[in-house]
Design a protein that fits this description.
By secondary structure, the chain is α/β, with parallel strands linked by helices. It has two domains: 1-33; 36-232, 3-Layer(aba) Sandwich (Aminopeptidase). The chain contains seven helices and eight strands; from the N terminus they run H-E-E-E-H-E-H-E-E-H-E-H-E-H-H. A six-stranded mixed β-sheet has the order 4-1-5-8-6-7, sandwiched between helices. Strand 6 (140-143), helix 4 (149-165) and strand 7 form a beta-alpha-beta unit. The protein is elongated. Bound molecules: zinc ion. Zinc ion (ZN) binds next to loops.
Amino acid sequence: MVFFKKYIFWIIFIIGVIILCIICVKATEQENYLPLLGKVIVVDPGHGGRDPGTIYGTIYEKDINLEISIVLERVLSENGAIVYMVREDDSDLSSIYDARKKRGDLYRRILFIEDEKKKTDLYLSIHINWYKNTSWSGAEVLYNEINPNNKILGEILMKHFKNDLNTKRTLKKTDLYLYRNTRKAGVLIECGFLSNPNERYLLRQEDYQEKLSIAITNAVIEYFQTISNVASG
Ligand SMILES: [Zn+2]
């Protein structure tokens, strides 16, 4: 008992140090497991401000794009990525001096992605689809061949969308202005159809936005593993 009393301070001190060491090791391990650590990703919520995108009644594509993008920003960040948002509110990137507002908006999105200071590894444009046949549904990816990695990313994204979101859609090419002029790797993701009643509901639900963001993030993780294997193999 006397022995115990004499050394109680040191016993507690040593136990404390051991616990601290275990916490530090665990924290370091967890940090090492962040699969997107150091990757720079630009999330580009389509439309905004004066440009609503596709519309159903009072439901605007631009608002759903932003909602999904904010969830995606969080999920990517949780996996270690540095994320830049092209817009974080209901605004577009056109200037009052632009004769063609839509073109000005897209031009500044390209500059934002290509900005040397950011060292962008990847960009993801988030949009919602529309078609006159309301039975059409499902997420799909569009890419331009300007960067050979775009097709690799598109294929991996479609694989995850088929597995996790049950989409029947397929990978497509696009020649739209933003995608044919952006040299950094990236794609256009059409998250679903605003024209389809079921998806119109789903796309506005938080849990579906989360599910979609997790599918995209898992595909992005696989993409970086794939291109690093190609580079080293
Ligand atoms: Zn759109």
